[in-house]
């Protein structure tokens, strides 16, 4: 995937320049406010990584609107604390925590299986959990960490829940898959034949690659659902630069600078959640208007590789192969 020292440095430079651009846009745009959303009584949603950060705000808002929300997360203490806080705020909230480690195929399978055993519908799946700039490492099943958690774990989860999503969608109320991606996908590169190697590891390239992979998957899934006439849509959402724990693996001097800048220029988790919630709940993205890439509170065009049907298909097929799926 990555070879020379230069190919390690370039992705970092590209990502930081992109970050600067995003911050400038955020500086000159108005704070994102979520419009009034329809009630979600009777709807069931799963939000991965909903114990904190953007995911927590997505869960809180959905629960406030009456949805039954299941947080899928690794840290039980954090997840249960999130549930408690939401219930304290909204007495009637139907929110619960279930263990899900996206770095483990076994855990993803267990989570999906135990959800399906409950015979609940699934109207919204928000693939939100993520890691960024983590030190070189592999998941339980041997995948590079960003690739395994941000992309492949969510690919598997979605695949395993797809029947339930299809069965739960109706015309006028299609089921939705929202993949929380990032503008970092724009500087991501994917080499299908070298997806999972860690030679001369670049955490920056690995993060960007995983976010591009999420977008390619999201777009391909949407088209598959449309072609098959299934009442499911899939889109990607970019929350912007948001002040969360995602940045904790930054190089220490950068981390210190980021802490100061974040207070002034980053979005709050609630503002970051707004775009994700619009993609998940907005009546405007029903029917033919589903899919696509959401950023800054509306649907946007994005970079050309995202629309490459051959790349989408190849990634889809390789992912099935990796996971031993048909
Ligand atoms: N913050 C930003 O500026 C920004 C910008 C663009 C996109 N995003 C995207 O937004 C999403 C949410 O990030 P955030 O900013 O809210 O960061 P965050 O506060 O660090 O939240 C990430 C969540 O993912 C969970 N997670 C990590 N690894 C996991 C695993 N193996 N299995 C299950 N859950 C796991 C974390 O829980 P544990 O670590 O406890 O497991 C945490 O709940 C990510 O996909 C991120 O890429 C964020």
Short structural summary:
With 326 residues, this protein is of the alpha/beta class.
Describe the structure.
This protein is of the alpha/beta class and 326 residues long. The chain has helices spanning 5-28, 53-64, 76-89, 105-117, 145-168, 203-228, 252-265, 269-281, 309-323, and strands at 44-48, 68-73, 94-99, 124-127, 175-180, 232-238, 293-295, 298-300. β1, α2 and β2 (68-73) form a beta-alpha-beta unit. It contains nine helices and eight strands. It has an eight-stranded mixed β-sheet, sandwiched between helices. Helices cover 48% and strands 12% of the residues. It has a single domain (40-323), classed as NAD(P)-binding Rossmann-like Domain (Rossmann fold, 3-Layer(aba) Sandwich), CATH 3.40.50. Residues 48-49, 51-55, 73-75, 78, 100-103, 128-132, 149, 180, 182, 238-239, 241-242, 244-246 line the site of NADP nicotinamide-adenine-dinucleotide phosphate.
SSE arrangement:
Layout: H1 5-28, E1 44-48, H2 53-64, E2 68-73, H3 76-89, E3 94-99, H4 105-117, E4 124-127, H5 145-168, E5 175-180, H6 203-228, E6 232-238, H7 252-265, H8 269-281, E7 293-295, E8 298-300, H9 309-323
Parallel strand pairs: 1-2, 1-4, 2-3, 4-5, 5-6, 6-7
Antiparallel strand pairs: 7-8
Helix pairs in contact: 1-6, 2-8, 4-5, 5-6, 6-9
The structure holds NADP nicotinamide-adenine-dinucleotide phosphate (NAP).
NADP nicotinamide-adenine-dinucleotide phosphate (NAP) binds next to helix 2.
Based on the model shown, name its key terms:
8-stranded mixed beta sheet; single chain; alpha/beta; binds NADP nicotinamide-adenine-dinucleotide phosphate; Rossmann fold; 326 residues; 9 helices
């Amino acid at each position: 995937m990555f070879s020379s020292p230069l190919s390690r440095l370039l992705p970092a430079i590209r990502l930081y320049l992109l970050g600067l651009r995003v911050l400038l846009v955020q500086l000159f745009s108005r704070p994102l406010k979520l419009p009034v959303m329809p009630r979600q009584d009777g709807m069931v949603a799963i939000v991965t990584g909903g114990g904190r950060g953007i995911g927590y705000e997505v869960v809180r808002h959905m629960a406030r609107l009456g949805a039954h929300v299941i947080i899928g997360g690794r840290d039980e203490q954090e997840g249960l604390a999130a549930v408690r806080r939401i219930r304290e705020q909204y007495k009637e909230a139907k929110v619960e925590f279930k263990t899900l480690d996206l770095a483990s195929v076994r855990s993803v399978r267990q989570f999906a299986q135990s959800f399906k055993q409950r015979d609940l519908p699934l109207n919204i799946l928000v693939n939100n959990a993520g890691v960024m700039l983590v030190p070189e490492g592999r998941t339980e099943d041997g995948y590079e960490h960003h690739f395994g958690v941000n992309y492949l774990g969510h690919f598997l989860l979605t695949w395993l829940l797809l029947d339930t999503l299809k069965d739960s969608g109706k015309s006028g109320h299609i089921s939705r898959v929202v993949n929380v991606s990032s503008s970092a996908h724009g500087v991501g590169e994917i080499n299908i034949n070298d997806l999972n190697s860690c030679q001369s590891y670049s955490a920056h390239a690995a993060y960007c690659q995983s976010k591009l992979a999420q977008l390619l998957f999201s777009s391909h899934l949407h088209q598959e659902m449309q072609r098959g006439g299934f009442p499911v849509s899939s889109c990607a959402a970019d929350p912007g630069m948001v002040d969360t724990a995602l940045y904790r693996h930054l190089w220490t001097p950068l981390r210190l600078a980021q802490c100061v800048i974040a207070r002034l220029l980053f979005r709050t988790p609630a503002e970051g959640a707004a775009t994700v919630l619009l993609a998940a709940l907005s009546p405007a993205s029903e029917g033919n208007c589903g899919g696509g890439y959401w950023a800054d509170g509306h649907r946007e065009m994005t970079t050309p590789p995202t629309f490459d049907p051959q790349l989408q298909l190849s990634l889809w097929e390789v992912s099935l192969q990796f996971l031993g799926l048909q």
